[in-house]
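Sync notes, pocket subgroup
Present: LS, DG
LS reminded everyone that the earlier model was apo-only. Rerun requested with tryptophanyl-5'AMP included. Inputs:
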Amino acid sequence: MDEKKTLYSAIQPTNNLTIGNYVGAISNWLKLQDDYDCYFSVANMHAITVRQDPAELRKKTLGLLALYLACGIDPQKCCLYVQSHVPAHAELCWVLNSLTYVGEMERMTQFKDKAARHAENVNMGLMDYPVLMAADILLYQAQVVPVGEDQRQHLEMARDIARRFNGAYSPTFTVPEGLFLKVGAKINDLQDPQKKMSKSCENPNGSVFLSDDRDTIIRKFKRAVTDSGSEIIYDPENKPGVSNLITVYSVFAKKSVKEVEAEFAGKGYGELKLAAGEAVADVLDPLRAEQARLLKDAEYLNSVLKSGAERAARTAGRTLFKVYKKIGFYQI
Ligand code: TYM
């Protein structure tokens, strides 16, 4: 009998992914894929809450799948699929909408942020985004959800919605637990190290994109903003710039924070910046090449998506069936 716990996570195929997404999500998933029954989706339904170019969205959807594979996420072990291929996501979202209050959605930090940045397009989807995310997770009865710090509030919402449904009807959904990295749950902007590195940053030197070439990566690290003083120690509170660089270097060079501090004792910020840039480029160079190779093999990518969608739809369908029954939808 399979006793592995179920794990769910997803990334939106929007803009260019950053090393924040790599550290906070994909590289963590890699470590978890052997120990959990994993579902990883390409969240294209979340993506349209901000206006997307249709051709680009299609391209980025496949690009993100190719990236998952290039990073080493194994489709033999994990279910990889595109969110819109499993209609149960939208269906459960609709049910959960009736258990979610407008006031709580209005209070979501990311909603407030995005509404301010896209004032001309504060649509219902943008507000409903956390409910769709709850539907994603709850459909698979996921016990564990590895995400970065910025998704903590959304995950709390998913837990609340699950408890609310279970209380209103009867135990139906597993209440998921978030899994947050001790180091790397929030990679910060290289130009503004108090702020999260994001796909849509204003200063392109602040974010390192997975698509950046080696020279660009190293240049961005060389320009990274550091702190006063000269000691290389991990102290996010007082030395956010240096601590961010230590985090990035430790993840990409596969060394502990303590090892990094020892390696750079008595050395200057410039050396840490260069080492971090080189470590990132060393990891990303082969990934980009492998992603490009995979993107030429549409037949393989489609076969992964087809079997992923079939498997995901089976699991999701079982949950949705139970939900429809409990809420009183007449079944034939
Ligand atoms: P998205 O696409 O914004 O980000 C994908 C993942 O990357 C993490 N992340 C970071 N981690 C560390 N440092 C950063 N600077 C950084 N930036 C992003 C995010 O926390 C996330 O884990 N709503 C989600 C996608 C989603 C989802 C889900 C996740 C849809 N359904 C169900 C979990 C479960 C999102 O927009 O992530």
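DG: Residues 8-12, 20-21, 23-25, 43, 46, 133, 136-137, 145, 147-148, 150-151, 185-187, 196-197 surround tryptophanyl-5'AMP (CB under 6 Å).
LS: Residues 44 and 231 are 43 Å apart (CA to CA).
Action: DG to write up.
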